[in-house]
Design brief:
CATH architecture: Orthogonal Bundle
Mean pLDDT: 96
Number of domains: 1
CATH class: Mainly Alpha
Distance between the termini: 17 Å
Radius of gyration: 18 Å
Low-confidence stretches: none
CATH superfamily: ADP-ribosylation/Crystallin J1
Strand content: under 5%
Length: 320
């Protein structure tokens, strides 16, 4: 079984996504009545067991681009190839694409076709509150291996550039930073609770340096200013809003004690189950590894070996 943290993170995202796909849009009371307990197929999108969705596709597109170095044009081209040519899809067919992401990728395509690639780096901050879906958080995990070890202000600038390819608002970018900063501390071998505590300190310090708006600070009250674990599970939401996805994923990762427990905990909240499964799965795969996951899940996961190969390439490029 793989001990490579890059591979574990990518498999963690893909498996969490695949576990959640059949249950997407189910309400929390429905999940409580018949909870997810295994890798199954059909359901919402009528897909075979082990099929992952756009969350994993865009994660793998980002990983693929990063194997060639950090270049926004390469990243955009990978996203475009996924959207229009079904690159990095689970079974050769695209399904379940968010509206914000679809519109944004069409815009990326236009930038490149009209010879203005410099526009890719000028998207930060152009979006409004409506661009705070979870569509950049769900795909951001591979960027960890490029930004690790850099100072946090540089990390945030890079993260915002990559987030802004589809989600331009600072709130979406800050959510990605919190997620990857926690991942960085986990990658360094810290206990998950100590890693979370340090992440909160890091982010609070960054806010002072960049003069993060007070109105935005309040949005992160539960995840940064307070300890997310103090929140009752009944207060968690798990829809398409990036803050809901971040809070639910952090809570389930921090309060459960294995990959499967964490991922099923968040999936059983219902709603955007493939995305919250992917986000939680990335952290859980990184922290716990994938060695205790049932072998059948590995066997049925779409393009398992391709993901492992990509993880090896990303590891060779940046280490872990």
């Amino acid at each position: 079984m793989e001990t490579n943290p890059v591979i574990n993170a990518l498999l963690g995202v893909a498996m969490g996504d695949a576990l959640g796909v059949p249950f997407e849009f189910r309400r929390s009371h429905q999940m409580k009545e018949t909870p997810a307990v295994d890798m199954v197929g059909h359901g919402t999108h009528n897909q075979l067991a082990g099929t992952w969705s756009d969350d994993t596709s865009l994660t793998l597109c980002l990983a693929e681009a990063l194997t060639k170095g950090y270049d926004l044009v390469n990243i955009a081209q990978e996203f475009i190839a996924w959207r229009y040519e079904s690159r990095w899809t689970a079974r050769g067919k695209l399904f379940d694409i968010g509206r914000t992401t679809a519109v944004a990728i069409a815009k990326l395509k236009s930038f490149l076709e009209h010879g203005v690639p410099e526009a890719l780096s000028n998207q930060k901050g152009l979006g409004d509150d409506r661009e705070n879906g979870n569509g950049s958080l769900m795909r951001i995990m591979p960027l960890l291996f490029y930004i690790k070890g850099k100072d946090i202000r540089t990390q945030f600038n890079i993260i915002w550039e990559v987030s802004a390819l589809t989600h331009r608002h600072i709130r979406a970018a800050m959510s990605c930073l919190i997620y990857l900063k926690l991942g960085e501390h986990l990658l360094a071998g810290k206990d998950k609770l100590l890693a979370y505590e340090q992440t909160r300190k890091d982010v609070l310090a960054l806010w002072e340096v960049i003069e993060f708006p007070e109105s935005e600070k309040t949005v992160f009250e539960k995840s940064v200013i307070q300890d997310i674990r103090s929140l009752p599970r009944t207060d968690l939401k798990s829809g398409g809003y990036v803050i809901e996805a971040l809070e639910a994923s952090l809570w389930c990762f921090l309060t459960e004690n294995s990959y499967a427990q964490a991922v099923f905990s968040v999936i059983n909240l219902g709603h955007d189950t493939d995305t919250t499964g992917a986000i939680t799965g990335g952290l859980a795969g990184l922290y716990y590894g994938m060695q205790d996951v049932p072998p059948r899940w590995h066997n049925v996961l779409a393009r398992h070996d391709d993901i492992v190969t990509l993880g090896k390439l990303l590891y060779e490029k940046y280490g872990a």
